[in-house]
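Anyone else keep sequences and structure tokens together like this?

Example one:
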Amino acid sequence: MDDLRGRLRVGVIGGSRPDPAALATAREVGRLIAGRGGILVCGGLGGVMEAASRGTREANGLAVGILPGTDPSGANNFVDLPIATGLGTTRNSLVALNADVLIAIDGEYGTLSEIAFGLIYGKKVIGLGTWDIKGVVPARTPEEAVELAFRR
């Protein structure tokens, strides 16, 4: 088994009710993260989180889901390591804290909170069709977003 500690942890954050284009973007981002040897960190539920987890699984990567509830079985079917927190939306802080870099796709206020936590924790936050706020590095494509994420 390889040492997971040396691998980049990329948080993918975004809406639970995205449009089909955002879902396709998230799936491709997940695939590209896995293809570069990164570990996906997400909130573990549906929407962008599920699409990114699916892409990661399709590329034989590792998807970690930090769940709001107390039951690990509440994770989407593509999460490899579900972590139950029992914290509700407060778990958004843990998603940001446990990623080395964040990619925000689409999203509403929960995503906005994760962006804010990421910036508070000094993480690079990359945006794909999400909140246009100070500190978020814009990207136009999944490829550009993942390239920016892996650039130190």
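And example two:
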Amino acid sequence: METSLRHTPLREWHIQHGAKVVPFAGWEMPIQYAGGALHEHRKVRSAAGIFDISHMGQFEVRGPDACAYLERLVSSSIESIEVGSSRYGLLCAPDGGVLDDLFVYRLPDTWWIVVNAANTESDFAWFEQHREGYNVDLTDVSPATAMFAVQGPEAIAIMDEVTDGAVSQIERFGATDSSIAGVQCLVGRTGYTGEDGVELFMSASAAQKVWDAILGCGAAGRAGLEPIGLAARDSLRFEPGFALYGHELSRDVTPVEARLTWACDLESEFIGRDAILARKEAGAERKLCTFTLTERGVPREGCEIYAGGDKIGSVVTGMFAPSAEAYAGNAFVGSAYSKVGSEFEVDIRGKRKAAVVVKRPLYKPAYK
């Protein structure tokens, strides 16, 4: 089974540098390095970290109907994205269920779409299925593309050193082409950690050269730059309230339950809009909430939640949140229990632990 797993161009580098690699979404990925996930989490919050996220999928959309085509598929307003900018959005089924969440970059001559690794093939098939009637060219460029993220308070200064000051000129959600170690890269001021930073794309064949240049520059000054694994990436995204597909989002969840109607332009006729509007007007029976335990315990995905002896929901993400110094989680519960201050119990290995719903997010994003 392991031989069928895909791997990024940096697989050998990760192993040689002490990474523990595990199967993830059909890929063999570094989950943590020798220092451990807690150290890596705090490194990103205090200084900077670099992530190899080359497992993510990327599509290119070109042609005269590209904007109209994406307006039909993606929940957010596509037409209003300026050239050199990007936007978060959702891919929804006709009944409003979320097929994936994604980022759309509008570039001078193309649209660049970033999707989740586990959904790359199904997303591309969905894009293909709805291409009829639109004059567009659609290409899955994932196999030829590597993707990194550099995140943390020192991320922009580090990236400025390898781009001759170009990155600090990019506004939040902006994107531009830049040269790093002689390699042409697309650099977006985006990220998944709640910290300032960038995500960058380059040819897979040049990935090692770019990685070495950034890591070497970051390690040379300030508090240093370190590689970060998927475990810390999960806790870093959880604290500022970012959804992870397969947890806070799924085919059985609409943006209403997931508190993501802000990512939906309900004036636009994207697939799933009518169902989302109807669900919003009717009111959702369950909603996503963030909770902290008021007694010691580690909530995990799948733990059942009870109130007054009745099961009212289940945990979709649970962990120790280092920045908040709390055992916390996200859960879908009956809407009446999703309000801040609501109390319930989380069943952890047969023992029910008291919890309270708290204001989201646990960590205020530190963007500049």
